[in-house]
Amino acid sequence: MTGYRFEEGGWAEARRVEFEGEEADSKSSSTIVSTVFRPEDCLTVLALPLPDRPLFPGFYMPVHVKVFPPIQDPKLLEALVESRKRQAPYAGAFLLKDEPWTDPSVVGGADTEKNIYELKGKELLNCLHEVGTLAQISSIQEDRVILIGHGRLRITEMVSEDPLMVKVDHLKDKPYNKDDDVIKATSFEVISTLSDILKTSSSWRDHVQTFTQHIGDFNYPRLADFGAGISGANKLQCQQVLEELDVYKRLKVTLEIVKREMEISKIQESIAKAIEEKISGEQRRYLLNEQLKAIKKELGMEADDKTALSGQFSFNLFLTELDASWKFVSFP
């Protein structure tokens, strides 16, 4: 089970670590090596499988590691705890591929979960997308691990099987022209669509407001990650954004995602409005009927239920007696 949320301090934390590293390097002499650890120094990481969504840089995600029978992975949790104690509290977060054994329609829910957490070594490695995220292990509470995404990684080879440790390359975005008109226009359209969604969907409000408040800290690559990260897009679409190193192409994919979210938001708003109007109409008719009954009763035009029932009974009795007496009438 995983959650997903934008973390304001995610990028700030990454920048802080890099700044400290640069500052330490500048102060050290040529004979002194800086001891400040930087995220990009992680070349071997613990591979943490994510079943639901990839983790984007700048976001945080709570992940539950199974430690209780019949599904348990105590070695993974122990390795995470040990990593957090060290100078390099990082792991690699990699999305699980869509395979037949992860499809609930093929295997029952409990068995599916069991299969996922029983995968080890090469078998698990083959089921992970090779591009993932360097994740800072922010905190561990029992079986709940909080991760903060930093940068993109690519798995190069396996180091150990249980728990799975892998060697990684740190990925950088391809060079791009910040003044390119097409990139600018695409980014503006993403921002405009996010603003439109804000008007129709309250669930996006906190995320988008955070984004607009920190717009100065966002560049085009982060904008693309942000739009995809807060969306309800499926995990493969999000993984596509994570794997794309071409900034313009990444923005295009994100734009498609947020446009789709906008359409869904409009449909939801339309459905909610129709239901609200129906309920309001029924409530209005009910209130008007009650008011009409009260007015008629006040004017003596309508009796209450007990009086009306008594009157109806008396009238029916009168008709019965009239019918009986009619049978005894004789004509000369």
From TrEMBL:
Transmembrane segments: none annotated. Gene3D superfamilies: 1.20.58.1480, LON domain-like. SUPFAM superfamilies: PUA domain-like. Residues 45-262 form the Lon N-terminal domain. GO terms for molecular function: ATP binding; ATP-dependent peptidase activity; serine-type endopeptidase activity; single-stranded DNA binding. InterPro entries: Lon_Prtase, Lon_prtase_N, Lon_prtase_N_sf, PUA-like_sf. GO terms for biological process: chaperone-mediated protein complex assembly; mitochondrion organization; protein quality control for misfolded or incompletely synthesized proteins. GO terms for cellular component: mitochondrial matrix. This is Lon N-terminal domain-containing protein. It comes from Nyssa sinensis.
